[in-house]
Amino acid sequence: MTARTLIVVGGGVVGLSICWRASASWQVTLVDPAAGSGASAVAGGMLAPVTEAWHGEEPLLELGAASLDAWPAYADDLASAAGVPAGLRTDGTIVVAADGTDRAELDRLAAFLDGLGRQVRSLRPREVRELEPAVAGPVRGGLSVPHDHAVDNRQLMTALSLAIRDVPVVRTAAASVRGGEVTLAGGGVLRADAVVLAAGAYSGRLHERLSRVVRPVKGEILRLRARPGTVGPPRRTVRALVAGRAMYLVPRDDGGVVLGATQYEAGFDTRVTVGGVRDLLADAERIVPEIGEYELVECSAGLRPGTPDNRPVIGWLEDGLLVATGHHRNGILLAPVTTDIVRDVLAGGEPPAAVRPDRFSVEVAR
Ligand code: GLY
């Protein structure tokens, strides 16, 4: 029997994961002018449903926790398919507070998580330094969250590219999508039994029903590396509140560290700003003073696909057009669960209520 045909629009972590998993039962084509070069390449790679948790976003925490549970098997399967490791690190996370107000905020986060049955351990300043000697700045204690992990996002994208090496790629931008059809920028139409729209922040430009649902949320990150003779980066992910501003340092196996991230509503602008770099470095140096001695390797900006409730949008948008986008700050974390939902929906199942596209029907109709 001939396999049914599927076009996946978007070569970020979500699109590539769908290509990889779906190619077992579909004849898949990927459409992206530069797969792997968007927000997935800029990410810190935190797998952090607990430390990203926010009041009112309990369904997102549940979805993220389910995806985190799926991550080890996803990473193992991917490593087998790709022949290279997926880049998972399971050293956990600490969150530290720079001042008393930040400490009070962390205490509120701990109480909120406790109320949801997700306990985190409070740390005194001395305990923070014992766990992570690189955190040598004056801190007002923190929280230990041992099950929030991280993945090297670029290693992950390399592994995904290798795992889909047999999937044909159309290296052209899509201009619009509809059920079973992708119109390419510059002309030409591709047809398939089904289309999956996984174009991240650009998804809102490709289908009218998403134009008021998915928006770009800019984030800048810096890539740093410890120079010989300097104190190396922390072993765990270190998140911090510094005078109310959130910052994170995500270590890599090669002595590198990703410092992130700013967050602005700036349309599709991906230029790195002086103010963004200044604030990130100032906040990081306050927590890990040795950062000032590190090599500054890269500054980049990406566009998170934000939605009104910060939850992804996964399900049929119309007959023959499935959407998997709107992952905002959590695309890498949510890749395994998104791929599972897409597989189920393609097989005739229903997506969970928390991610269904029709929850935005009011916004769409306006
Ligand atoms: N997940 C972290 C960020 O979006 O900056």
Summarize this structure as a short list of keywords or feature phrases.
366 residues; FAD/NAD(P)-binding domain; alpha+beta; six-stranded mixed sheet; 2 domains; binds glycine; 20 strands; single chain; 10 helices; D-Amino Acid Oxidase, Chain A, domain 2; globular
CATH C-level of the largest domain: Alpha Beta
The fourth-level CATH homologous superfamily of the largest domain is: FAD/NAD(P)-binding domain
Task: Quickly give the CATH architecture of the largest domain.
Answer: 3-Layer(bba) Sandwich
Helix fraction, binned, reads 25-40%
- Rg, rounded, reads 20 Å
Gross morphology is globular
Low-confidence region ranges: 362-366
Bound ligands, each once: glycine
Specify the biggest β-sheet.
8 strands, mixed
How many structural domains?
Answer: 2
Number of strands: 20
Strand order of the largest sheet: 6-7-5-15-16-17-14-18
Short précis:
The chain is of the alpha+beta class.
Question: What is the topology?
Answer:
Elements: E1 4-9, H1 13-22, E2 26-31, H2 39-42, E3 46-47, H3 58-82, E4 88-89, E5 93-97, H4 100-115, E6 121-123, H5 125-131, E7 142-145, E8 149-151, H6 153-163, E9 169-170, E10 174-178, E11 181-184, E12 189-191, E13 194-197, H7 203-206, E14 215-225, E15 237-242, E16 245-251, E17 256-260, H8 274-287, E18 295-306, E19 313-318, E20 321-325, H9 331-346, H10 361-365
Parallel strand pairs: 1-2, 1-13, 2-9, 5-15, 13-20
Antiparallel strand pairs: 3-8, 4-8, 5-7, 6-7, 10-11, 11-12, 14-17, 14-18, 15-16, 16-17, 19-20
Residues 44, 46, 219, 260-261, 304, 329 line the site of glycine.
